[in-house]
Design goal:
single chain, alpha+beta, 4-stranded mixed β-sheet, 4 strands, rod-shaped
Length: 198
């Protein structure tokens, strides 16, 4: 829209300059004819009458051209005001866009730092986990939307929300604490806690 308004302002500016030039040209001609009349250079009555008619005609033409010039000036003023308004809106949008991008970049940097920290922390934690368990966890995490293990809380799997039957709970309770147990529904590794309800 700003581009179209800019083109309109340019067109109207050219039109106004042309209208100005047209008015000045006719005024110049009127001035020359008036000078001839004032200096008495025209003595023939017929030529004198013709010159007076021409002066009246030129005056009428000047009025018409000035009306056109005023109309173009009004249109130009309106178009310039619209262009200024649109440019102000675009500048405000650009400022807001810059602010949003800066905020996004800041948040991205914080997320990158957090990711690096979590990745380092995971590497330290994973170093103490047996390789086969870590491989199982990574495989499950990849296939289960990033969650390979979930807490068993109040007899429910934290991954799929399934409530385990009393028989399954008894079976899990009977297994050694270091044995890997998995959810029957989602296959995730179940992490037993004091809140498991065993």
């Amino acid at each position: 829209m700003a581009r179209e308004l800019g083109i309109r302002v340019d067109d109207l500016t050219r039109e106004q300059k042309k209208a100005d030039a047209d008015v000045e040209q006719v005024k110049g001609r009127r001035q020359r004819d008036q000078d001839k009349l004032d200096r008495g250079l025209v003595t023939n009555p017929k030529d004198l009458e013709h010159l007076q008619h021409e002066l009246v005609s030129l005056e009428r033409r000047i009025n018409e051209l000035e009306d056109v010039e005023l109309e173009v000036m009004e249109q130009l003023e309106t178009a310039q005001a619209e262009l200024t308004s649109v440019n102000d809106q675009l500048a405000a949008i650009a400022d807001k866009g810059s602010s949003v991008l800066a905020s996004r970049d800041e948040k991205q940097a914080a997320l990158d730092a957090e990711t690096q920290s979590v990745t380092s922390e995971r590497a330290i934690t994973a170093s103490g986990v047996p390789a086969d368990l870590l491989a199982l966890y990574d495989k499950l995490r990849e296939s289960k939307g990033g969650v390979g293990a979930s807490a068993l809380r109040q007899r429910r799997c934290g991954g799929c929300g399934l409530e385990l039957s009393p028989a399954d709970l008894a079976s899990i309770k009977a297994k050694p604490v270091d044995e890997v147990v998995r959810c029957e529904e989602c296959s995730r590794i179940l992490v037993r806690t004091s809140e498991s309800g065993l």
